[in-house]
Prior knowledge:
Chain A is an all-beta fold. Chain A contains no helices and eleven strands.
Amino acid sequence: GEDVEQSLFLSVREGDSSVINCTYTDSSSTYLYWYKQEPGAGLQLLTYIFSNMDMKQDQRLTVLLNKKDKHLSLRIADTQTGDSAIYFCAEIPLSGNTPLVFGKGTRLSVIA
Amino acid sequence: DTGVSQDPRHKITKRGQNVTFRCDPISEHNRLYWYRQTLGQGPEFLTYFQNEAQLEKSRLLSDRFSAERPKGSFSTLEIQRTEQGDSAMYLCASSFGTSAETQYFGPGTRLLVL
Lengths: 112, 114
């Protein structure tokens, strides 16, 4: 089945690292994505990882993928107040007919 | 700006009225997607097009929902006989390619049905 789970809230202090976690159920997923959504706005693509990779780094963002446990994480280094938003994990499952399956999102609050 | 655009950004309507939303994808993108997002949830897939062909529509929420992309460029999403439960953010995304690819989202149309 298609299901993506995320914790709903995360609070960190400015300058600390944030780690947002996600689990998915479709082991055949080829790509996994992280999107950011600010209040009242659409979704902004942050980064993605192909399923044959374990890690991807892009400036302050590090994505870790554990295919065995179907676990994906997004680490934001030196978190800033502008990083406060909702972060969505999403997968493209090969099974089913849904191009992208999203989690419910993790609301990140950055305390100055 | 060459991103995905949506119009209108906000729509308030009375129950029973019909509404239509427009999406203009990134110009070279051949795939266009519609999603619905309710409060506290992630986007939920509705339908998508490759060029002008609607490849998947079984996820449209009811027969009151329909979408078109007549010339393979912009798309419209229509909701007939709106209900209060249709109140949500309607998001459009586009991508280029025929296999797993990256979708870029528009700002969304927020619908409120009174």
